[in-house]
Design brief:
By secondary structure, the protein is an alpha+beta fold. About 30% of the residues lie in helices and about 30% in strands. The chain is built from nine helices and twelve strands. The chain has helices spanning about 75-85, 105-120, 125-140, 145-150, 190, 195-205, 215-225, 230-245, 265-270, and strands spanning about 5-25, 30-50, 55-60, 65-70, 90-95, 155-160, 165-170, 180, 250, 255-260, 275, 285. Strands 1, 2, 3, 4, 5, 6, 7 and 12 form an eight-stranded mixed β-sheet that branches. The chain is globular and about 60 Å long.
């Protein structure tokens, strides 16, 4: 009888970053970002099976299961598994577009780390899994603070670099939806690796945590304007929201925007692929076998 490979699955929510300031330390654990964002219910599900050789498949599917995009490799995920000392077959799936500022690279790494930890019975703490996921993000320049944010839920304000730094979290008492429109990917490594771009980002950082959702959007919009990252299509979408009186800002880092409240959807829908999102209150978690 052929033994069934060990298997585990985990889900990690995505993250919308409103503003950030990079912090560069001597190693990945002390490198990251300060800033504020929103952990969202849409994210990445990772399935991990014990295997003799590591393979990774990344999929984007519609809510009905139709395949939209597929990648047959992920250097950050392979790096993560190497650091965990395991070989596995990994399949990650998401519904939001990849590389569009929804924190999906961090979500893929965090969910894979949690699933691999369970599958191989490594007994790593949640903090250790997060640390390895964060390291993979830093090494491959796919993000700075999304792993730290998506460890748990809520609207977050990160007060230091790395996964162990203090994070203030709050919830939206009205639970209003967040509507987002994506115009395509923005190459995060190119931006995060640019000293000139990071200097503008650092100068634009507002230097405090938001007091509430309205304050978050005000601070984030000011940061977007000063950062020099706004693209022409993002400017068009922001102007449309301004004319309708809808709070909105640019996704960091993504070629798109997200806006606050149900009133945002009819404004954004004519401009491109639009998504209704909500805050997530739980962060990364293991899934049952039915996943």
């Amino acid at each position: 009888m052929i033994p069934v490979p060990r298997h585990a699955a985990a889900f990690c929510p995505g993250h919308l970053s409103g503003y950030f300031r990079p912090v560069y330390g001597p190693d990945p654990s002390s490198t990251g970002s300060l800033g504020a964002g929103i952990v969202i219910r849409e994210g990445v599900t990772s399935h991990v099976w014990e295997e003799t050789e590591t393979t990774v498949r990344v999929e984007q599917r519609t809510s009905s299961g139709r395949l939209l995009a597929e990648l047959r490799t992920s250097p950050p995920v392979k790096y993560l598994l190497d650091r965990m000392g395991v070989c596995a077959r990994v399949e990650t799936s998401c519904r939001l577009p990849i590389g569009a500022g929804f924190g999906l690279s961090a979500a893929a790494l965090l969910s894979t780390a949690a699933a691999a930890n369970a599958c191989f019975e490594l007994s790593l703490s949640p903090g250790a899994c997060s640390g390895l996921a964060h390291e993979a993000e830093i090494v491959h320049r796919t993000g700075l603070g999304d792993v730290a944010a998506s460890q748990e839920g809520g609207w977050d304000c990160r007060k230091g670099a790395g996964v162990g730094a203090p994070i203030t979290r709050f919830s939206d008492p009205d639970d209003r939806p967040i509507c987002a429109v994506a115009f395509g990917p923005m190459h995060s490594p190119r931006v995060l690796g640019s000293a000139e771009a990071m200097a503008r980002v650092t100068a634009a950082f507002p230097g405090r945590c938001p007091e509430d959702p309205a304050d978050f959007f005000q601070l984030s919009r000011g940061f977007a304007e000063k950062s020099g990252l706004i693209t022409p299509r993002v400017r068009q979408a922001l102007s449309a929201c301004d004319q309708a009186g809808v709070p909105a800002t640019m996704t960091m880092l993504g070629n798109g925007i997200f806006a606050y409240g149900e009133e945002a959807f009819p404004v954004l829908a004519p401009l491109g692929p639009t998504y209704r999102l909500h805050g997530d209150c739980a962060g990364v978690r293991l899934l049952g076998e039915e996943a």
